[in-house]
Amino acid sequence: MLSPFPRPGEPAVGLRTPSRAEASAPTVLKVVIAGGFGAGKTTAVGAVSEIPPLSTEEYLTEASRGVDSLAGVEAKQTTTVAFDFGRLSLPEAPVPLELFLFGAPGQARFVDLWYDLARGAVGAVVLADTRRLESSFTPISFFEDIDLPFVVALNQFDGAHRYHPEQVRTALELPTSIPVVTCDARDPNHVAGVLLTLVGHAENAAADPDCHSSTTTLQDA
Fold first, then answer.
1. Maximum alpha-carbon separation in the chain
2. Is-contact 190 184, C-beta < 8 A?
3. How many Å apart are CA 131 and CA 55, to the nearest integer?
4. Is the per-residue pLDDT at 145 higher than 80?
5. Residues near 60 by Cβ (< 8 Å), separated by ≥ 6?
6. Which long-range contacts (CB under 8 A, 24 or more apart) does 184-192 make?
7. Element of type H or E holding 196
8. For residue 133, what pLDDT is reported?
9. CB atoms within 10 A of CB 217
10. Quick check: pTM over 0.85?
11. What is the C-alpha to C-alpha distance for residues 39 and 136, in angstroms, rounded to an integer?
């Protein structure tokens, strides 16, 4: 169900149809894990990756204090400046999958990089921190604008109030077609469950134009 997502004005990249030999191999899909600053994206990739994750975190400095608000995440000391990368194999899924996970930096100033990370992705997970829910609006709007299927996962931080997913759906003004689930980004089983929810949603979006306007189909990245 993959589609390249060029920046406005760029030509689209052609899709490749898998060969018969490739059809028996796991379906390889690219997934973007996005969300606001400090929402738990690096944690999620690291929790579920079967390989040592690639991380591009750097320490926050005094120069970033006027740019990156630490309200609600005062203990945060690092931030992703490019992307995180991990891999997850799901051989027991209804269709065996191999997921390439790309964690996006949370700040809106990295939007050009978001276009690059979204290129060829089957969909995205938007991790939401209910303590700073307003930080979810920008990534949600981005994926809506580029017509990439996405799900919203409420990361259950210790000590944070637990909201029902439907309450958050209302707050974020999301249609009922967009799955909203809860998870603990530190728990590999939780993260894997969210990823399977995304793949199922992306497949449904391709099959039902009324569910989502995407015209992509599931195939290798």
1. 55
2. yes
3. 25
4. yes
5. 68, 70, 76, 77, 78, 79
6. 184/155, 184/156, 185/40, 185/41, 185/43, 185/44, 185/47, 185/127, 185/153, 185/155, 186/43, 186/47, 187/47, 188/47, 188/48, 191/44, 191/47, 191/48, 192/48, 192/88, 192/90
7. helix 188-207
8. 93
9. 15
10. no
11. 9
